[in-house]
Task: inverse folding
């Protein structure tokens, strides 16, 4: 609602469109930051997703990057998709990760909270 006035159908559609674009952009950017970290790169700043990723990595044995954005399919199972990140552990086991972006993420273009 805008003050005390309910939004018109067109205003609601416009707000949804704006939110859709902003969310997709922020999610794509945060996803890229996670991939960068997992591939041994450096990023400036942090956000809830990166903090969760750091906590996860601190609790696991060392991982070696194997694939990022791995497209998979299985005709018989009628399954297709993309695995965000695959690593191998010290025993050679594959570890599959997916990055889930929170709606309230602070990570947007240039809007990450700096590391302290």
Result:
């Amino acid at each position: 609602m805008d003050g005390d006035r309910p939004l018109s159908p067109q205003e609601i559609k416009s707000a949804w469109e704006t939110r859709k674009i902003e969310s997709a952009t922020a999610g794509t950017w945060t996803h890229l930051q996670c991939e960068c970290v997992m591939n041994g790169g450096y990023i400036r700043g942090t956000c809830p997703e990166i903090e969760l990723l750091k906590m996860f990595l601190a609790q696991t044995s060392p991982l070696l990057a194997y694939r990022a954005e791995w497209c998979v399919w299985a005709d018989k199972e009628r399954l297709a998709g993309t695995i965000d990140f695959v690593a191998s552990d010290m025993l050679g086991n594959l570890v599959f990760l997916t990055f889930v972006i929170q709606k309230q993420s602070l990570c947007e273009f240039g809007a990450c909270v700096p590391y302290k």
The beta strands are 64-74, 79-88, 94-97. The chain has one domain: 9-97.
